[in-house]
Amino acid sequence: MNDGTSLSSISHSVPSAASSSMSSKSRFVPSSVSVNTPLVSVNTPYDSLVPRKPSYNVKQQICSFLRPLANSFIFDILNIMPQPNSYDCGVIAIANATELLFGNNPAKCVWDVSKMREHLIQCFQQQKINRFPILRERRIPFGHSVKNFVIEDIHCTCRMPEDHSKSMIECSLCKKWFHGACIGLEGLENYTDKKWFCSKCDCMLS
Ligand SMILES: [Zn+2]
Ligand SMILES: [Zn+2]
Predict the structure, then answer these.
(1) Cα(175) to centroid of ligand 2, in Å?
(2) Which one of 126, 152, 178 terminates a domain?
(3) 180 C-alpha to ligand 2 centroid (Å)
(4) 135 and 200 belong to one structural domain
(5) Which listed site, 43, 59, 115, 174, has its alpha carbon 20 to 30 Å from 50?
(6) How far away, in angstroms, is 194 Cα from ligand 2 center?
(7) Neighbours of ion ligand 1 (CB under 5 A)
(8) What DSSP letter does each residue of 157-206 carry, written as one string?
């Protein structure tokens, strides 16, 4: 597909198909697959700094915009071309997101890094996003690797992975865990010997 995609249409399609995150430490593109199936969600962060396990910060950001309903979330880390310098992670993340929008596999792309910034400026000027220049396609892209799967339990009403800096409480009935701050419970240490029910279970019991 060689036609460009209008930049205005991307704002609608990006959140469901591919979003590029620009945190201070990571530039990555999560591509979600079956985000809200009942049991499990699968997500592929395309990160030019991979292979590595996603940090809590990356997992938190992915969950914050995908809001998985599932109780487990699989972060399936696909190897893509590593960035050849320390400053092009943002433009490579946009290039990877663009490949996903065009229905292609970013893991096949060997980017022509020297032309990427110029290409991005042209896209902005033309109000149209086109595929970024590549040097070549990998015949066999780096693919999935079992050791690169990370499975996280998703908790609470905020649908986040466990954050060890926040105290949590377990519902005495459904055995799910909630952050005190998310459910308006201060001083969780006072609840250690008491039964506590989440709002769903509380409704069922009353
Ligand atoms: Zn929470
Ligand atoms: Zn409960």
Answers:
(1) 6
(2) 152
(3) 14
(4) no
(5) 115
(6) 14
(7) 156, 158, 179, 182
(8) TTTEE--TTS-EEE-TTT--EEETGGGT---GGGGTTS----HHHHHHH-
Q: Residue 69 Cα, ligand 2 centroid: separation in angstroms?
A: 15
Distance 147 CA to ligand 1 centre (A): 28
- Cα(206) to ligand 2 centroid in Å equals 13
On whether both 14 and 48 belong to a single domain, the answer is yes
Which carries the bigger pLDDT value, residue 136 or residue 72?
136
Q: Are residue 105 and residue 184 in the same domain, yes or no?
A: no
What pLDDT is stored for residue 70 in this prediction? Answer: 81
| 199 and 145 both lie in a single domain | no
Determine the distance separating the centroid of ligand 2 and the alpha carbon of 178, expressed in angstroms: 9
Tens of pLDDT, residue by residue over 162-184, are 877 888 889 999 999 998 888 88
For the question of whether the overall pTM of this predicted structure is more than 0.90, the answer is no
Q: Which DSSP state fits 18?
A: B
Please tell me the distance between residue 199's alpha carbon and the centre of ligand 1 in angstroms: 13
Q: Are residues 146 and 52 in the same domain?
A: yes
Number of domains in the chain: 2
Residue-wise pLDDT for 109-154, tens only, equals 899 999 999 999 999 999 999 999 999 988 755 555 545 677 888 8
- Assigned domain for 157 exists: no
Looking up tokens 């079956």 gives 34
Q: How confident is the model at residue 34 (pLDDT cuts 50, 70, 90)?
A: very low
Task: Starting from the CA of residue 168, give the closest ligand.
Answer: 1
The CATH number of residue 185's host domain is 3.30.40.10
Sole residue written with tokens 């430490």: 25
Domain region containing 178: 166-205
